[in-house]
């Protein structure tokens, strides 16, 4: 099974089968993660089959407004020529392209006609439906589930695109989460530039700046202060779609969270001009110039999805995390409180306010527990959200924190690293003394701990023993990137750090761009999950599979997607399996269509188009469970057709 992220195939020709897609995954310029061969996604959003075929965001990806264009062009221009097909023998060209019988996708999403225009009739002749018949179906009955429109065997699943799922023996002919691998974040990091009230997006492959946004959409928060210097963004987390959330601390004024789209097809055309206006590197110099209206859109940026006020004036929002199940937790420092939000809705809905037993200075969530440092003299805490009780443990000058796969919390402290087991009856934390103050802390896919001081990044094993260190400039926050290597945000610098071998010391640190064109440095202040690694590998564990099916007929109406009809299919307690679809007549349109859920085997809303994309997401919600949900089979049917 080729475990790749979809954008790894964007430079490949659309011609042959996905069974050979591994050649594309190793294209020059791609970065391989430590996930058993999984290749990193360089598109910055949810992986899906349409992205490898159409350039991900549709035709607009090749324009000058894409928030991900820097990464896309930099990482998808290798020499790979192996191609990916749509499923089950369907036509591989854009069905509306009458000038060509086949197309290729470039690194920017443009299509290149490969045949002479005299072959204008070939498209209609080769545009077949899933049964191999021509698109004129006449009065023949539409097929039920069969080989042409179903996926159940290894070879069938290989026609789709898999992220952190597999069908390896002995569990062949079914998909399950790769427990020993990890969900690679999108290849971006987000940096809160707190004194400016902005968020910087950096490509973690190239190190170049991709976009810069205001951290607050003022029209959504009339009670917020209009001066960006008062917003004070800091805590950041990323969801499965690559969308970013940031909490604005807002001392003495109203605090709010802001959601920013991770890719253009998630943005909103607020002015109705048919185009997305958003920050991008217009002159391709690797820096976003806030004084250039072509590169920085400010409040007019249409990738600012919403802002949402949380808590009272001067609540000071110093903690934020996502639980991977559609909830966000926002910590109001001055209230000793957490707000639980439903972020599946836009704008979000506050579900409850939780009274904590210590001050929230940063959140990590695992199962029913919310872990958090409290800053300096206040005790760290593990709060049981089901029982509404907390266990506090003192850590001298605690700062950043994280939690590992065993539920052990780790905090930066005045003299090193604190290991806190809240179930240990001794009621104290173990300290690894290094005579240096650690600020940001995170955990990698090997359960190794990383901590940063102002001059050094440290690597520890899961007992807390120091494995080694690497010097860097103004280190502060740390998160694991798409390739398994740490990224570090410093007050005045941003770095990539070579992870080094498991159980061994880290390698060298490489500094990225981070400031303004005029050389005036920005003050970076982020030390939470600014790549999204924790949210999808520790809070929950996730995987995904997607495929495009060509129905062979324009404006086809799709009605049912029966799945897990075989006895091998299962969704154990503590796990989730969801299926969604979207459809259009062209590949370019497909990438911008909304996902529609499948409920009890039926599409929840009408879905119409010749091409239909199916996406299955598998998730382990219970942190103590090592059993995955299983997708045994999947079928797509036209409206009115029974399985």
Walk me through the structure.
By secondary structure, the chain is mostly beta strands. The protein is 5% helix and 33% strand. Residues 1-48, 50-85 and 87-138 have low confidence and may be disordered.
Count of beta strands: 42
Number of helices: 7
* Rg calculated over all Cα atoms: 24 Å
Cα distance, first to last residue? 28 Å
Instruction: Report strand order across the widest sheet.
Output: 4-34-39-36-37-38-35-42
Largest sheet: 8 strands, antiparallel
Low-confidence stretches: 1-48, 50-85, 87-138
The proportion of residues in beta strands is: 25-35%
Give the structure's gist in a few sentences.
The protein has 643 residues and is mainly β. 5% of the residues lie in helices and 33% in strands. It is built from 7 helices and 42 strands.
